């Protein structure tokens, strides 16, 4: 092969870490195409490509050279990762087994034809989810079904409970990455996992209170409080936990709504009625996909609506991460209403970070955007929103904001618990 492809730093890195991709041994100002591919755990192929020109010395450094087109254009050093698209339609990029890395194949081809040029060089790049020294512990304590990730070192560490949305099951990739930044993180399942209920029909805070108690009693978790991180339905559960349960020091809501949606929220004698929805409000987009953004019932009374979570009872601060192009529901509007409710109850205005061109699934950095996929409840593909370049930049910034927020409010601001910004 005529060229060498190097990825720095050498060796396996974590998925949320940036790398520098350099091609050497090209002719001056040679036209080439870079191609990236990986197969997920279900065998689905993801691919991206971009066209480039080498510099006068025959080198191509993606931190300096803009892409001339392809899956993306412009100066995008990590574009070959965030622009990956599945060959299978409506397929979401997920990592289910964090103990194995994703293997990315990088190829450089002569000319600007992504499938026709002569292969000049290739490299294999491993991107993992368990940083060196991070410990993964299966948790089956009482009713709690989860996985705990502990950072390297003696501890104790600031603790976080991590929740996902209506997909159910147990996803560990975000919790495992957080542990690499110094946080003892519990990836918590709450339905459709092992002996938990198959469907999510009840939002009773007792189960989640048990998970909080488990964390606070753990010798490796630093009290007196813990943090909560959730996306979508998981974000609303986190907001409910912060409102009803003790010892919650900081909460991050990623595209949550702040309302009880299809099921009532109950804790002891308190019960918040569901807002409900009307499936007749589903729209069909130009693409033929379903758009569910307006399915929920109207918020009569604004922040005084009885279906709103009483977030003014939360002891710690709340950070709202919002995609302005979220098509699951109107996250930006919901965050504004939450802010109004907090201020109406004499609380400080919360931090709301809104990202233009950003859809529903705001993931850790460099995850490919999921513009549309199968909705578990409707069993049909729906639009999630977002424009890939803007969405990717939002994910990088949101991750930094989340790490900084937890570092600030969970104490222990030693280097091990501070984000690698």
UniProtKB/TrEMBL annotation:
Active site: 232 (charge relay system), 326 (charge relay system), 360 (charge relay system)
Cited Pfam families: BAAT_C, Bile_Hydr_Trans
Domain named BAAT/Acyl-CoA thioester hydrolase C-terminal: residues: 204-411
Keyword Chloroplast applies: no
Gene3D superfamilies (alphabetical): Acyl-CoA thioester hydrolase/BAAT N-terminal domain (2.60.40.2240), alpha/beta hydrolase (3.40.50.1820)
UniProt entry keywords in alphabetical sequence: Fatty acid metabolism, Lipid metabolism
GO process annotations (BP): acyl-CoA metabolic process; fatty acid metabolic process
InterPro entries cross-referenced by the UniProt entry: AB_hydrolase_fold, Acyl-CoA_thioEstase_long-chain, BAAT_C, Thio_Ohase/aa_AcTrfase, Thio_Ohase/BAAT_N
Domain Acyl-CoA thioester hydrolase/bile acid-CoA amino acid N-acetyltransferase, chain residue ranges per copy: 16-140
GO molecular-function term, one example from the UniProt record: fatty acyl-CoA hydrolase activity
Lipid metabolism found in the keyword field: yes
Cellular component aspect of the GO annotation: peroxisome
Record-stated family: Belongs to the C/M/P thioester hydrolase family.
PANTHER family in the cross-refs: ACYL-COENZYME A THIOESTERASE-RELATED, PEROXISOMAL SUCCINYL-COENZYME A THIOESTERASE
Protein name: Acyl-CoA thioesterase 4
Organism: Molossus molossus
